């Protein structure tokens, strides 16, 4: 768990009942809104995501921020109020992309690349608010392996995918987590909060 002198790193993710973050071909159509996870995190001053997730993430939220009245990319609807709110928050919040392969990141304006865990550990040790780990699953597993994540906040959907990108695939060792909250929602989802 984070010491008093370090920032709290919170991973907030949407998962299927069987623990997948997406289907076998990358399907994410079982998630109604990607903005829902923002309601699970306290006041943050940094968003953190991996290189695999960043390109689609940046394009999606930048398009909503720039044109909230337009139909969403790859969808047949305009953005919801919560998605517009998320896009606006994301646009003004610094983003860190953990990558050894990406050459550049362009959105939001205060986005930058971190190449190694030592630099990320140093950033976590600096004064500041909590850091929101947006994802993806590979990054979350890597950060768990490095003992950098302090809390997991999961929106568990009442759907079984059977196959796909497992949230904890890539975690090296057994993890014991402390349940902080389990809250069912009217939609059938369950919000689970664990401390590491």
CATH architecture: 3-Layer(aba) Sandwich
Percentage of residues assigned to helices? 10-25%
Low-confidence runs = none
As a whole number of angstroms, the C-alpha radius of gyration is: 16 Å
Total count of helical runs of at least 4 residues:
4
Largest β-sheet summary: 8 strands, mixed
Shape: globular
> What's the total number of strands?
10
Overall tally of domains: 1
Q: Which band does the percent of strand residues land in?
A: 25-35%
What attributes characterize this protein structure?
196 residues, alpha/beta, Dihydrofolate Reductase, subunit A, two-stranded antiparallel sheet, 4 helices, globular
What does this structure look like?
With 196 residues, this protein is of the alpha/beta class. It has a single domain, classed as Dihydrofolate Reductase, subunit A (3-Layer(aba) Sandwich). Helices cover 22% and strands 28% of the residues. The chain has 4 helices and 10 strands. Strands 5-4-3-6-1-7-10-9 form an 8-stranded mixed sheet, covered by helices on one side. Helix 1 packs across helix 2. The longest helix has 13 residues. The chain is globular, with a radius of gyration of 16 Å.
């Amino acid at each position: 768990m984070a010491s008093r002198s370090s920032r709290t790193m919170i991973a907030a993710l949407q998962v299927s009942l069987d623990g997948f973050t997406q289907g076998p071909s990358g399907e994410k159509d079982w998630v109604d809104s990607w903005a829902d996870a923002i309601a699970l995190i306290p006041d943050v001053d940094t968003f953190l995501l991996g290189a695999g997730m960043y390109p689609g993430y940046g394009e999606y939220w930048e398009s909503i921020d720039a044109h909230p009245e337009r139909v969403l990319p790859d969808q047949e609807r305009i953005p919801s109020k919560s998605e517009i709110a998320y896009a606006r928050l994301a646009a003004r919040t610094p983003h860190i992309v953990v990558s050894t392969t990406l050459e550049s990141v362009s959105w939001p304006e205060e986005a930058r690349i971190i190449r190694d865990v030592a630099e990320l550990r140093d950033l976590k040790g600096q004064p500041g608010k909590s850091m929101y780990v947006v994802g993806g699953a590979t990054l979350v597993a890597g950060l768990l392996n490095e003992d950098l994540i302090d809390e997991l906040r999961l929106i568990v959907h009442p759907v079984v995918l059977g196959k796909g990108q497992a949230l904890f695939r890539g975690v090296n060792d057994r993890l014991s987590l402390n349940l902080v909250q389990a809250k069912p929602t009217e939609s059938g989802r369950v919000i689970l909060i664990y401390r590491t």
